[in-house]
Design brief:
Pfam families: Lactamase_B
Largest sheet: 6 strands, mixed
Radius of gyration: 17 Å
Strand order of the largest sheet: 1-2-3-4-5-6
CATH class: Alpha Beta
Shape: globular
Oligomer: single chain
Number of strands: 13
Protein name: MBL fold metallo-hydrolase
Structural class: alpha/beta
Order of helices and strands: EEEHEHHEHHEEEEEEHEHEH
Number of helices: 8
Length: about 250
């Protein structure tokens, strides 16, 4: 089995919103970007010398519009099956993210007002429903889908044989990807402490780099230091009763 290579596919700006192409015996796409970006992703896959018809799977990391917005379109363009976690089936089947969004800071509070986050996109039914760690060898890449709940209940990451972690919105670059190499929260988390616990579990697996949905790759040691600071901050907020999180029924508490 050839080792898996991770190739970024910019969806918006150079690093603002990313999808990824995993190259092994067969190609796999991770994430489908914003609504209307399916054709752009399709063209960029071809520009890397890959026949889009050879794509074996499209993995959606979670149920936010900027990650599954073009899943139905990309499925139609490539013919590839789509994988998504069972806990985010609601957004996938309805074409809407769970609302309200729960901001992690000022950026999230500003972005939550943007109408593009509240649109309905073409829904889809995952062909591969993820319920736990899932080996992707049968799809042609040496990698595993790893459940990483917290950002949303059904968030997942993909860990390759080379130690590359395609992390979705488990962590981001600062200012929604504008400050390269600096770890930060993405604009929203349904469960900030749960997300941080998932991030720590992935860091315990000693990834070589974290490839994020918003920004450039992050170095694990720098993310570990940031996670320690974030743990202290969230613990203080939780003790003061100021840490919003979504309940199991989907409503904020």
């Amino acid at each position: 089995m050839s080792r898996t290579k991770v190739v970024p596919i910019p969806v918006m700006g150079r690093h603002h919103i990313n999808a990824y192409l995993l190259l092994g015996r067969r190609p796999v796409i991770v994430d489908a970007g914003t609504p209307g970006s399916g054709r752009r992703i399709h063209e960029q896959v071809a520009a890397h010398g890959v026949d889009p018809a050879d794509v074996s799977l499209i993995v959606i990391t979670h149920g936010h519009i900027d990650h599954f917005g073009s899943a139905a379109e990309l499925h139609r363009l490539t013919g590839a099956p789509v994988a998504g976690h069972v806990a985010d089936l609601g957004p996938y089947r309805s074409g809407r993210a769970r609302e309200p969004y729960l901001p992690t800071g000022l950026m999230g509070r500003l972005m939550a007002r943007h109408r593009n986050l509240h649109v309905r996109v073409p829904p889809f039914e995952p062909d591969v429903v993820v319920t736990g760690e899932t080996d992707l060898e049968d799809f042609g890449v040496s990698a595993r889908i790893m459940p990483t709940p917290g950002h949303t209940a059904g968030s997942v990451s993909v860990l390759t044989d080379r130690g590359d972690l395609v992390a979705g919105d488990l962590v981001a670059n600062s200012l929604f990807g504008l400050v390269r190499g600096r770890p930060a929260n993405p604009p929203f988390h349904d469960d900030p402490l749960g997300n941080l616990a998932s991030l720590r579990r992935m860091l315990d697996l000693d990834p070589t780099r974290l490839h994020v949905g918003h920004g450039t790759p992050l170095e694990p040691d720098r993310v570990r230091r940031w996670a320690d600071r974030e743990q202290r901050r969230l613990t203080r907020l939780a003790a003061a009763g100021r840490l919003p999180a979504r309940t199991e029924t989907g409503a904020p508490r």
